[in-house]
Structure formats: C-alpha cells, structure tokens
Amino acid sequence: MLRQTGSSSAADTTAPPRSPLLVCDLTQSYTPSGGGGISTYLREKRDYVLTHTPHHLLQIVPGPEDRVTVNGRHVFVEVGAPPVRGSPNYRFILRTSKVREVLEEYRPDIIESLCPWVLPWTAIRYRRAFPETALVAGYRTDFPNAHVYRVGRDMFGEVAGRFLRLVSWGYAEVTYREFDHVYTLSEDARTQFARKKITRTSVLPLGVDANLFHPGKRDPGYRAELRLPSGDGPLLIYAGRIDNEKRADRLLAMFKALPPDLGAAMVMVGDGKLRDRLASEAAGLPIAFPGFEKDRAELARALASSDIYVSAMADETFGISVVEAQASGLPVVGVAGGAMPDRVPPGTGYLGPVDDTAAMARNVVRIWREGAAAMGVRARATAASIYDWRRTFELLFDTIYPAALSHTAVRLEEDAALLFPPRRDPRSRTYRG
What's the pLDDT at 430? Predict the structure, then answer.
C-alpha cells in the first residue's frame, strides 16, 4: 500500500475558470532536494498549477519508499526505487507495475513523460488500455549522444559508439511516435525530430526564478567560507553533476591551464562519480568541492558570490544551470555545442570548441580582463527578460496540451472507424453508416 501524508486544502486560483484536467508528470530524473533541471521544473509547475489554474497535478517520481503526499489539487507520489550508482541523489524506478497501479487509480487526462528510459513505455502501455489519455513527451536530454554514444565510445571504441547511437535513435523514433505531442527545449532538437518524421512537436523554453537567482544575493564572505585564498582574481563556479556526461574533468584541465598570476579560484558545486577523483587531482589547488547543495537559496548565494560561470557540457538540451548563473549576474564561459550557443548570446560570455580546455582558459582570462561584472549585467538582463516560468507554463497549458488533446480526439475517431467501419450499400455502390 502507498502511504499517504499531507493536507487536502485546495490552493486558490487567480486565472479565469477552465475545464479542470488531471495532469500527470512521470519521471526518473528527480532528486528530493530539488536540484537538477527536471526537479526544478516539477516544483515550478506545481506552484503554477496551484496558483494560476483550476487543474489537478499528479507527479510520480522515484523515492526511498512508496508514499503519497496530498496538498489540495497536488498529489505527489514517490515509488520506492534503488539509488543510481555514482549519482547518490538520484533513484531509478524498476517497479513499473507500481507506476501502472497509480495511473489506474488516478486516471489522468494527460501524462507528460519527462525522461526517455522505461517509464515512457509504462505510459504508452497504459494509454493502450485507456486510449482517451493524451500522451506528451518532453525531450529533455540528448541521450543518444550524452548517454549512449559517449559511454559506448569510451567503453568499446568509436565505431561501436556510433552504432549504439544509431540504435538509440531508432529507439527514440519508435518511442516518441507513440506520443500525441512532443516538445523539445531547442529548435535544433526539434529539427532532429523532423528528420525522423516526428512532426507533432513544439519548442518549450524553460524559465528561471529571477527573484531567487539575483546579483543581490552576493556574499563577500563566501570565498573565505570555502577556505579559498583571497585575492583580486576571479572565482569560477560550476553547479551540476560532477560526472562524465557533464565533462566535469575538463574544468579541472581548464583551471590548470590558467596563468598563475590571474589569481583564480574555483568552486564545483555538486556530486557525482568523478567528484572524489577530481578532488584528489586538485589537491593543492584553490578549488573547493562543497558537494551537492540541497538549499536553492544557498545555491543562489553561491552563484551570486562568484564571478564567472564555467561549463564544458556539450550536450545540454536547455542548460537551466547556465540561465540561473546568468540571472545571478555571471558571464558564462562554455563550449559551442548543444544548447549553449542559444543560451549565451554575444556580450554575455564566450564559447570555445568542445573539449578545448586551453581555449576555455583563454576565454576565462579574456572575460576577466575585459570586465566580467559588466558582461554579467548584460547576462542578467537577458535571462530576466527572456526566461520566465509563467511564460513556460502558459505555453504548455494553452498550446502544447491542447494540441495533444486534439490529436487524441482524432486518434479516437480513427480507432472508432476501424472498429465500426461504414457498411457498403450494394444498390448505390456507396457507403452508409
């Protein structure tokens, strides 16, 4: 049995009445402390639904045990799942029968699948039993490259890596064609889907809490708190998983390539399978590894108290951590890959070739000498004006969900026509119902 906690008081709505829906979010990529792009999205979506819509929201995520928490129109279901090896803050649901049980209990109108592995097919099989359910998929991770190709290449060589990437794209085609609508986080990803003849798609830009992530959160004592040497050089910061997918080891190589007279220090906020190794390799260098930050306000303080955001990740589909850094008033040094060129327009940072750590080091020096603070002001203005969570969810509820529901209606009509085809009238050689 699922254990249920919480209250049942409904939150007020300020939006005009609309036909209430029960929307379900389904994902493996959740951490209870709220870190990570999808965890942030789930929290912001909950707040939007409860304050701006009449809808009900069911969110199904992995947790340490089976548990249901009800807060008015929000139902939060944790399905007991084992931790992911090397990423202790994440868990992976294997008990898909329990997920199916929850879906059959609540019977959502729309299921939004937020990750590519296992659970999309749980939703698809559920929809086959309950065909009136609309399925929406969020393509949030470039998994054929970031998860499959890169791991396959490192383990088995380039040829094997490319073959596995091809196979994973085949899996993606078969999977996402089952959905009534798919949204990507960039136009580039949407173009990739179009090449695969998947055309029921939209682009959904994500958002940032520009009040939480704000230059005003800067703390002059943060550097000393990390026991990093004081000085006039820049404090570089990275926030995210410290693993191979994020290319975290390139940041250490970049730091070692910086000129000593720059007086730079660096903080790498996060956890992951490379953290201990990189911390050992960074011994004696002014680099701090404070671990995973559970408190979003503390993360905002860390970002605002730094000078330059650095990331070597080449496969970002959106890069929400980049936008949070920009909202905090930081210029960005990154790579010209994935969504980074879209997130870092001219005047807000510099991008170099993927895996070119020497070029990344040169860009850090360039920004610092040109004036990181002024560039950070432009980055803040860009992030605060473009990336707004309310705009994100208005597009989701007013455009993407209606498109999915419209296709569901067409699909039901087609299914009905197959079940009850018109009968031929032999006298007129026409069909009649």
Answer: 40
Distance from C-alpha of 25 to C-alpha of 45, rounded to nearest angstrom: 10
Residue of 178, 49, 76 whose CA lies nearest to 119: 178
Q: Is 24 helix (H, G, I), strand (E, B) or coil?
A: strand
330-358 confidence digits (pLDDT tens): 999 999 988 888 889 999 999 999 999 99
Q: Which of 208, 286, 274 is nearest to 241 (CA)?
A: 274
| Same domain flag for 382 and 392 | no
44 & 164 share domain:
yes
Establish if 433 belongs to a structural domain. no
- What distance in Å separates the CA atoms of residue 417 and residue 407, rounded to the nearest whole number? 15
Q: 153: pLDDT confidence band, cut at 50, 70 and 90?
A: confident
Print the domain residue range for 394.
3-207+388-419
Residue type, 381: A
Asked whether residue 429 carries a pLDDT value surpassing 90, the answer given is no
Asked if 243 and 158 sit in the same domain, the reply is no
Specify the pLDDT at position 177.
Answer: 95
What whole-number distance in Å separates Cα of residue 396 and Cα of residue 135? 13
